[in-house]
Amino acid sequence: MVPECRACGQRFWYPRLFCPLCGAAEVGAVPHPGNGTVYSYTIVRKNPAPQAPAAPYIVAYVELQDGPRILTVLHADDIESVSVGAPVRLHADPNDGTGPPEFALATSP
């Protein structure tokens, strides 16, 4: 699900009570197929904190198809194979609100 303003149609991430574009409070959520492309990324080779994923891992901005960009963890079998523009698909979507959805390269199993 992706937040969407019912007044102006803007889709955005992260979920908010008001639209970041027009300020309207008519915010809902629309289904999203869970695919997009890598907009930008970096490979983290040393954990900055104990609760961080095991290094190395990829932090990326994923641009959703017909949606916003999401800062997320990107899963890949070979982290060196990641590139800007690479297709991705939804990998995990925490329903408990603890973080953003996670994505994987579309070519990864």
Q: What brief labels describe this structure?
A:
39% strand; 2 domains; mainly beta; 5-stranded mixed barrel; OB fold (Dihydrolipoamide Acetyltransferase, E2P); 109 residues; 0% helix; two-stranded antiparallel sheet; elongated
Describe this structure in words.
With 109 residues, the protein is mostly beta strands. The chain has two domains: 1-31, no CATH class; 33-109, OB fold (Dihydrolipoamide Acetyltransferase, E2P) (Beta Barrel). Helices cover 0% and strands 39% of the residues. The strands form two sheets. Strands 3-4-5-7-6 form a five-stranded mixed beta barrel. The chain has a two-stranded antiparallel sheet with strand order 1-2. The two termini are 23 Å apart. The mean pLDDT is 88.
Q: Strand portion, in percent?
A: 35-45%
Structural class: mainly beta
Q: What name does the CATH topology of the largest domain carry?
A: OB fold (Dihydrolipoamide Acetyltransferase, E2P)
Compute the separation of the termini in Å.
Answer: 23 Å
What is the CATH domain class of the largest domain? Mainly Beta
Portion in helices: under 10%
Number of strands: 7
- Give me the CATH architecture of the largest domain, please: Beta Barrel
Strand-and-helix sequence, N→C?
EEEEEEE
- Describe the largest sheet: 5 strands, mixed, barrel
Give the total of domains: 2
Low-confidence stretches: none
Count of helices? 0
Silhouette:
elongated
